[in-house]
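Hey, resending since the last one bounced:
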Amino acid sequence: MQVIENISGVRESISAFKSEGESVGFVPTMGALHKGHISLMRRAKEENDRVVCSIFVNPTQFNNPNDLKNYPRTIEEDSLMLEKEGCDLIFFPSEKEIYPVKDTVIYDLGMLDKTMEGLHRPGHFNGVAMVVKKLFEIIQPHKAYFGEKDYQQLLIISHITKFYNLGIDIVACPTLREPDGLAMSSRNQLLSPSERDIAHVIYDILTGLKEKAGKVSVCSLMDCAEAELKKYPEFKKEYIEIADATTLEAVNNWNNKNIRVFAAIYLGKVRLIDNIKLF
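The structure tokens again:
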């Protein structure tokens, strides 16, 4: 397994793969890898001759400087995990390598970044679009793999890939969960033992909403969510939204049959997100 820190070295290695007629799958990450990331790696390995993984904690997508500072960084453990899974190349660039000069591009993401994560984290998705476009242009993979836990991000990446004609197949992969239902996330490492014991409640609430969806009004379903959350003073809701799974526009009836429920909840100081399909 190669570990390369500079763009020129990565391009040289990938060019060598492609010169042999080999397909390249790409899994971009910010490190602190868990089984969810590994599931993306395994899917990429199944569908491609070579797999490239990037590890880069992207500063332009963080609104809160403390969040950036506290984000877990575990490069040694990550490298061992990736090598065990048969990763061919890790791209591990410095901030200066990705941003030799300040990038001030503003991306037109339509309405996709005007709600939920985009509303509560201004500029976040512009930072995501910025780094993913750069990584795509460096790696130039045939396929790139993203988890549905970050569903809004997935739609935005698909949007910029099509808008800029990048010629990359974006592969959506199901959210991987802990045995109790908690969506796997690097941020889970920041939960205290007592917080971790109740973190699964977020998923429990979402699955409870799924069971009632279509049987009561959307408004009544939202009231159910609020009532369940109030049982746990440890949780602080940022949002719970029921929205069209393609446009992310909020829905107020069940006429649409392509609907998901999305949540962002603080548990202590840790912000957890999740979503599931209702229809």
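Strands lie at 2-4, 24-29, 50-55, 89-91, 143-147, 169-173, 235-244, 259-267, 270-277.

Sorry for the duplicate.
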